[in-house]
UniProtKB/TrEMBL annotation:
The protein's name in its UniProt record: 1-deoxy-D-xylulose 5-phosphate reductoisomerase
Annotated positions binding 1-deoxy-D-xylulose 5-phosphate: 139, 165-166, 190, 213, 226, 231-232, 235
Oxidoreductase listed as a keyword: yes
Binding sites annotated in the UniProt record for NADPH: 27-30, 138, 140, 219
SUPFAM superfamilies documented for this protein: 1-deoxy-D-xylulose-5-phosphate reductoisomerase, C-terminal domain (SSF69055), Glyceraldehyde-3-phosphate dehydrogenase-like, C-terminal domain (SSF55347), NAD(P)-binding Rossmann-fold domains (SSF51735)
Keyword terms of this UniProt record: Isoprene biosynthesis, Magnesium, Manganese, Metal-binding, NADP, Oxidoreductase
Domain 1-deoxy-D-xylulose 5-phosphate reductoisomerase C-terminal: 160-243
Entry cofactors: Mg(2+); Mn(2+)
Binding site for Mn(2+): 164, 166, 235
Gene3D superfamilies linked to this entry: 1.10.1740.10, NAD(P)-binding Rossmann-like Domain
The DXP reductoisomerase C-terminal domain, residue ranges: 275-395
Amino acid sequence: MVRSPAQPEGRTRTDKARRTLSIFGATGSIGVSTADVVLQHRDSFDIEVVTAQSRAEELAETAIRLGAKHAVIGDPDRLEVLRARLAGTGIGVAAGPAAIVEAASRPVDLAVAAIVGAAGLEPTLAAIDAGADIALANKECMVCAGGLFNRRAAAASVRVLPVDSEHDAIFQSLEANNLHAVERITITASGGPFRTATLDEMRRATPAEALKHPRWAMGPKISIDSATMMNKGLELIEAHHLFDIGSARLDVLVHPQSIVHGFVTYSDGSVVAQLGVADMRIPISHCLNWPRRVETATPRLDLATVGTLSFEKPDLQRFPALRVARTALENGDWATNILNAANEVAVQAFLDGAIGYLEIAATVEAVLDVATGTVGGTELDTLEAVLTLDREGRRLAAERIDSRGRRAG
Ligand SMILES: NC(=O)c1ccc[n+]([C@@H]2O[C@H](COP(=O)([O-])OP(=O)(O)OC[C@H]3O[C@@H](n4cnc5c(N)ncnc54)[C@H](OP(=O)(O)O)[C@@H]3O)[C@@H](O)[C@H]2O)c1
């Protein structure tokens, strides 16, 4: 039987008409869309905390627009800018990674986890421990520490509501009374900017080309993950943890129009899907307001104009990251932790011009090969164990990238 974020029934924290909310990663793509959704229904939310890493001016502006009580910046060197911008507003300021974790401990009904990368794990766990339901955009949290994450959420009796459009689609397609009858879960992928590219074109791909997503406007890390399809691999792992379903019953289908975000196949042959235009304000609004639906200022889906919906199997030759991620999922939490760490390092190296596009997946696979013989099977029972393994994955990836650079130079 799969699990639904709607379980267990009867809890009331997110049923309140007016909710307290914190937004972690408020200046990013998801953060900005979240602010839009909140501002459309200003009377439904009280904002406790907003955070960012370095964009202090944008953070200050967001804090003022949302009427937040606290604004926290990760980079301590940006504190003075934040303080100056918020002088006289009464909004509290703080800086540093520990201050973000501390801010996450402030009790709220719902915490939006929209920091990018494993950096979001500690604040999200702190919010869970403080009893907040989680609107989860930060999939890397789940990928680097899925088992620990779920145990902490269960211990605190909090709900994890998936913001990722594919997982939100599955959330919407799961029938509470028929979880035992779910046969398969399928998430879709646009195919990214290189869906039809040849391997030769991919070899020469520049960061600017890889960042140009055909359907979604997103932050740089997830845009590169979409180009390699590692994003879909991370989402398979996220789906496994969110819905408690094994790799063998999880599918990925390439759907270039990005209209059908995911679907559930039931044992009676019925397929229930969620459709919508490619606009993250739809899943964000669903999570922020769940179990109610409220008006959202997004374009409406017009299927006659879309005309054709097409689907194809992913090409694992040209997109090996998806295969590597699925193997990691099947090998367990230690492997997905290493996968995530190595991928974060490789994506940054690609953006910095240190490696080519095809080297991203190759680096992750090579790091996993080495790690299998050294840290394979490591139990991730504690946050410390998760962070130690994450550092090892980053070290191995940096070492490989560095040694290749030296050989090339
Ligand atoms: N964008 C989408 O459409 C989308 C869809 C589904 C899921 N997601 C997931 O949502 C998460 C956020 O994606 P995004 O596209 O919104 O990313 P983004 O635009 O790059 O924004 C990232 C946010 O995190 C902050 N941040 C970065 N590094 C940090 C650190 N070390 N400590 C604390 N805060 C840090 C950034 O602050 P600064 O602005 O100051 O740098 C920014 O507020 C990712 O996990 C992504 O996979 C995104």
